[in-house]
Amino acid sequence: GCVTCLDHDEHYILTFPNGYGRQVDALIALSILTVPWIELGGECSINCSKTGYNASIVFHTKPFYGGKKHRITAEIFSPNDKKPFCSIEGEWNGVMYAKYSTGENAVFIDTKKMPTIKKKVRKLEDQDDFESRCLWKDVTYNLKIRDIDAATAAKH
């Protein structure tokens, strides 16, 4: 993906984690299903060619037995440095904590306290045929009215 910060004239290239649909827990032996959740897993990177700053991020999948969901660790590097000046750990959908090379520890971000920003999306009639919302509009509509057969047909 590409993100441009117009206020700072910075352009970032980033990779994304894998997404997994999960349902069963360690209680699988008892055939008890849990509430489904989306899990992210894998290594990602963020690089800014203008500044040279970069980050290495790991989304940790929940172990089969024990462990926590939604864990993340990351390291942020200054240009040309081999050692990170900041390490991050926590939950990608909760609180993440920063530990700086100076020894300072702080909350990096609390995603639950962040405001929700409404997406800006062009009207369907202004979208090209293969833009996501236009392409999937019939599937979305049929899912909203709970017509699974029609949604499946539209998906094909």
From TrEMBL:
GO cellular component assignments: cytosol; Golgi apparatus; membrane
GO molecular function (one): sterol binding
Pfam families: Oxysterol_BP
Family matches, as InterPro entries: OSBP_sf (IPR037239), Oxysterol-bd (IPR000648)
Domain of life of the organism encoding this protein: Eukaryota
PANTHER family referenced in this protein's UniProt entry, alphabetically: OXYSTEROL-BINDING PROTEIN-RELATED, OXYSTEROL-BINDING PROTEIN-RELATED PROTEIN 9
Record protein name field: OSBL9 protein
Name of the gene this protein is made from: Osbpl9
